[in-house]
Each structure stands twice: as C-alpha cells, then as structure tokens.
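Continuing the batch. This is chain 6 of the set; chains 1 through 5 are on the previous pages. Same settings as before, nothing changed between runs. Recording input and output for traceability.
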Amino acid sequence: MRNTKRYNVEGVNSLWQLYKTVSFWKVFRNVIVIEIARYIPFFKLKNWMFRRLIGMTIGEYTAFAFKVTPDLMFPELITVGKNSIIGYNTTILAHEYLIDEYRLGEVLIGDNVLVGANTTILPGVTIGDGAKISAASLVHKNVPAGAFVGGNPMRIISMPNSSSEQ
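Output for chain 6:
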C-alpha cells in the first residue's frame, strides 16, 4: 500500500491547475537543477545539488546514475539512505496529478538499496534497507527490507533467507 495524501480539485483536471498547487518558480528552478544533475558524472556534486538546491535528503555514498530524474515538483519529499544506488534513467515520483485530484507522498528509500535501470518509483512508497529492485520495474507498493523485487507491476521475487524463488 502506498501512503499518499489526496487533494481534490474542481473544474478542469488537476494538471491544468498545477501552479495553484506548487510555485512556478520552484518548478522552474528544480527543472534546471535536475536537468543539469542528470548529466553530471560526479556523485558528490550531484548529491550536493540535490540536497542543497532542491531539498532532497540523501545519505552518504549514495550514487545517482546517469539520467536519474527525481520529482520535479516535490523533490523535498524524497529521502534516500546511505550507500544506495539509483540506476540509470530511473524516475522517482512524489506526486500524481489525476483528473479530479492530485496526490502527494513521501518516497523513502533505505540504506544499501539497489534500484535497477529504467525503474519508476511511485509516490508514497517505502523501500526497505538492503532491497534490490530489478531493471525496468514499476515500484507501486512498499518493498520489504532485503527483498528482491521486479516487474511491471512489481512483485516479490525472493526474500532474505528464502531458498526458492516465486
């Protein structure tokens, strides 16, 4: 289950009402910072930009690979623990804009987590310490600590101390 907070809107769809929910200048700044950071090959500089310029919480020695895209509108809702790897071209969302509502949810990624390339993480998800997510997965629910998960939609492939795979 994802932990998101819902906000109802009236009239046209919520995305058309975007700048009633978040400042244009905040989004503008975040887009510039994130687009530059996506291409920077230096992890310390990238982490500094994400922490200091857009408000993400990132643990020591975490590595964001080439072209990772954190949420453009609410990056401050993303926390990544220490010594984790976020794989190539992964997207981490903290918002969903729907027809009659929008939703916000913190994304909490633990320590020593491996997120494979081309993964999408939806708002309100917690990924436990030591979890491994295979490439091209849609993380639409919480991931237990130590689990190996994958797929679209994501499913648990194995858990720690389990000898058989599903």
